[in-house]
Specification:
single chain, mainly alpha
Length: 285
């Protein structure tokens, strides 16, 4: 049986708030903690779909101030108070719960557009939250949404085998799988079939186009730290896409190396900071 994972911020490929200033770190940490707790509810193999949905409903109720008498929801209750104090849009949290409810019942992904819609709830709120707490313009949302969708789908590609073995969950669109003659059983094998490799290659091509579309983002945001963090994220994402295309997501865990991180922290930061001075629209390498 595949064990349930409980990721911390340090375990993520693209940690939220990597270069966030001291003033905002507690808020970002509180948001990440609550999002992770809700995600863990949706992934809990000991709960039925109905029980998961009920717990997610309780988490939302706690966020809005209807605090259940359970310590499990205290972080949601506290985050709700912070959102009110900071005048933040509640949807930056509650939209995440929409995605987790879909996960709780293993809602099928039939076409590519459905996967992007899932990302609109599972990933875009995180990017929008970061923009909001940094006081960024609404014009930054579209490229941020696109970038967050790329990051989410990259994680799906990495976790293809884990997701189906641990939760019977498949994020690859059924239409694309059928086009390549791939079944759910193929996702449980010890290595990728040629057809699965081709499908992953097509998805990576789509993600590179989306990443290129989102590359204007560092030039739009005003925060010095956020520009630098975005530069790092673009660099890490390109590195991960290369590893996924060259590697085998079923045979072994695809991970970023220390060199990938070092390169991203140096070159990604510089590109992120200087893109507003001279933005060429090129991809971050």
């Amino acid at each position: 049986m595949t064990p349930t994972r409980h990721k911390q911020a340090k375990d993520e490929n693209f940690p939220v708030g990597l270069l966030t200033g001291k003033r905002l770190r507690p808020l970002v940490a509180a948001y990440y903690k609550v999002a992770r707790q809700a995600d863990d509810i949706a992934d809990n193999p000991a709960l039925s779909p109905d029980a998961k949905t009920a717990e997610l409903d309780a988490a939302e109720a706690a966020f809005y101030g209807n605090y259940p008498q359970s310590e499990r929801y205290s972080a949601m209750f506290e985050l709700g108070k912070i959102f009110q104090e900071q005048n933040l849009d509640a949807r930056l949290y509650t939209d995440l719960l929409t995605a987790f409810r879909r996960d709780a019942v293993n809602q099928k992904v039939e076409i590519w557009e459905q996967l992007l819609d899932y990302c609109r709830y599972s990933a875009a709120p995180v990017g929008r939250f970061m923009l909001a707490v940094h006081g960024e313009s609404l014009s930054a949302r579209p490229p941020a949404d696109t970038l967050c969708a790329v990051l989410q789908i990259v994680n799906h590609l990495q976790d293809i085998k884990y997701d189906i073995l641990s939760a019977g969950r498949v994020y690859l669109p059924e239409q694309m799988m059928a086009q390549y003659g791939i079944t759910a059983n193929d996702l449980c094998l010890s290595s990728c079939t040629p057809a699965l490799k081709r499908l992953i290659g097509e998805i990576c091509t789509r993600l590179r186009k989306m990443l290129d579309d989102a590359s204007v983002l560092p030039a739009i945001v005003r925060s010095f730290r956020l520009k630098a963090e975005l530069g790092v994220i673009f660099s890490l994402t390109n590195s991960m896409l290369k590893k996924i295309e060259k590697g085998d997501v079923l045979a072994s865990e695809i991970k970023l190396s220390r060199w990938d991180w070092l390169k991203a922290l140096v070159t990604g930061t510089l590109k992120g900071l200087f893109c507003s001075i001279r933005f060429s629209g090129r991809k971050y390498e």
